[in-house]
Amino acid sequence: MRVVLCVFVTGLLTSVLAAEEHVVETETHRFEEVADGVYFVSGTGAMVTRSNAMVVITDEDVLVVDSHITPAAGRALIEGVGRITDKPIRTLVNSHFHYDHSHGNQAFGPGVRVVGHEYTRHKMAKAPLEEHTFVGSSERDRQALEELRAALETVSDEEREALETQISIQAAHVESTAEIDPVAPDTTLAKKMTFFRGGREIELHFLGRAHTGGDVVVYLPAERLVFTGDMMLGGPPWPGDGWVNEWPATLERLKQLDFDLILPGHGPYFRDRELIDYVQAFHRELWEVVSALHAEGVSAEDAVERIDLSHHAENLPAARVRVDLRGVQRMYMVLEGTAE
């Protein structure tokens, strides 16, 4: 009995160790293997990364989805990939044009093909450093750094070390933001693109406008998983560049793909497909409410105060069912035909 017990315990410990081996952590990144050779990548907090990424290792090379927020974050991601494989990165996919998913592109260098939707190339080749999302974020980051430095005057000695670490991380992020030289995709798709390489089938789909006018989802049919960028998170994504009126139909087309696992552009991955239904319901009601307020001649500023979709918190995170002014302003632009 003792021998059998020892074998059982040894086997249990081996299983635990095997499970732990599916996670590789660097100082800046956490690489979790969610399928054979497929990694869901998130930041550890040691630097500002802001978004998730995905790494797909084929028999020949590596495909990376999304490059993070700055060249420094992109370089750290590349360094982390080198910890899990010695195969070269040959392809980078941008799920959409937003700065926190694409401003690390330049770190990958000219030898890496950058793929994105036609709209993503249009936005990134035009004036990406003038986009309101990037400008607003940069201003908030600089302000946050000033506030952290000012707080040094009031903290206790016990709190000082942690605050100084925060300041160091934030300062490095602001410094790397100044280094950004946007690189637009050099290869584009309109509807669908499929890579058959190194024993993998990797599909890129444009299913319709949603979070932006060019959201691309990366679908691995054999592995039954999809990387959705910000088109589908664990709750309603920010609509400030979105097409809320078209979003539910786009998500309906997403549901036609055969997958069990959703890897979002922010937050943890999940398997509950019912969340898609809840996000669709939220967007349908949001569009209906905002359209009615617009028709009444209510200003966007006043509309924000009148919108209450808190009942959706029964099925979605409470923080995700709030709508800010920029989101309402964007919907007004769509209604007035001035949105790009």
Q: Briefly, what is this?
A:
By secondary structure, the protein is α/β, with parallel strands linked by helices. The protein is built from ten helices and 13 strands. It has a domain at 24-187: 4-Layer Sandwich (Metallo-beta-lactamase, Chain A).
How would you describe the overall organization of this protein?
The protein has helices spanning 2-20, 71-84, 99-102, 118-126, 132-151, 157-177, 247-254, 274-295, 300-306, 325-336, and strands spanning 23-25, 29-35, 38-43, 53-57, 62-65, 89-93, 113-117, 187-189, 192-197, 200-205, 217-220, 225-229, 261-264. With 340 residues, it is of the alpha/beta class. It has a domain at 24-187: Ribonuclease Z/Hydroxyacylglutathione hydrolase-like (Metallo-beta-lactamase, Chain A), CATH 3.60.15.10. The strands form two sheets. Strands 1-2-3-4-5-6-7-8 form an eight-stranded mixed sheet. A five-stranded mixed sheet has the order 9-10-11-12-13, with no helix packed on it. It is globular and about 60 Å long. Residues 1-20 have low confidence and may be disordered.
